[in-house]
Please model this.
Amino acid sequence: MFFVSQTLLGADNDTIALTPTHVNNITYIRLANGLYDCLYITKETDSRPSMDCPDEWDFDTIFHADFNNSTNAGNVDWNLKTVTHLLIKRRNTEKFRWNTIAVREVRTLEDFTEGLRGNDYTNACHVEYEYAVVPVFHGLEEGTYYTTFVDSEFNDIFIVEKNCIFGTPATDGYCDTTRRIPSSINETIHNRYPTYIRNTVSNYDKGSCKGMFIELDDENCDLVVDDALRIPYQRKIMDFLADGMPKILKHFDGRIWLMIITGDPTDTADTTYQNRNISFEWAEIGDYNSERDLYYTNLSDIEEKWWNK
Model:
C-alpha cells in the first residue's frame, strides 16, 4: 500500500519511517487510542532506525517513557548514577558571581522528587535574582543549570539570623549610617598643616535603627494590639537583639548589611504607652554576599567545598 509516496507495512526501507521528515521544531507529542510499550526520542541520528526502545538513557536521549506503571519520561533513574548532590545557587542578574545557598545530598529517587525547600533570607530588596538548581557529581562536575528569575521586593526592615527572622512594618525609615574609616590628625610644632595618619584598611558601616516591632496574628495577619500579648513579643525582640549573634539587617530601600548589635537596645514609649519603639546600634562585620563570611558568622551551613571561588 502506498500513501503520500511512502510504502506502508511493506518491505521497503522507508516502511513506517521512525523519523518524521520535513518537520521542524517538534514541541508536542500525543499518543491516544492504543496500547504502547514505550516512547523514545533521541538526538542520535546516525544509527539505523529500530522498533526497539533502548533500556537505558545516554547523553543523546531527550525523552524516554517506558510506561512501566508510570507516565514518567524523565531520566531520574539515570541521574542517580551521575548526581550525588543538588545545589541551589543565586546571583544578582547585574553580576556574574553565583552564591550557593542550599545543598541536598542525593541518595534515592525521593531526594529528586522532594527537591529543596526553604527560605532565602539573605536577599536584598529591589534586586532581580537568578536562581538555579544544579546537579553535581561528587563536587567535581556540575550539570546543567535549571534557572528561574525572581524580583526581590519587600516593604519592611528585617533582622535575620540563620533560622530566625523578625520584621517591623512601622519604623522611622531612616536607619542612619556612618562610614567608619579610623584615622587621626596630628599637629606638629613647625608645620602649618597637620599630618594625617591612617594605620588600618578598616572601612565599614555603623548605624542606628528604630522600629515598632508588633506581632502579626497568624490567622488574619492583623497587628496584635493586646498589651498582654505585645509586651512578651517585644521582650522576645530584645532578647533576640541581645543574644550576641551576628545578623543580617535588610532595609526596604535596598541596603543590606552583615552586622552585630553594639551598645544597649532600648524600648521606649512613643507618645503613648502602647506605641513603643525598639532602637539599637549596630556595626558591619562582614560582606553579606560572601559565602565565607556567612559561614563563619553562623548564618549559613554551606561548607567551603561548595563555595564559588
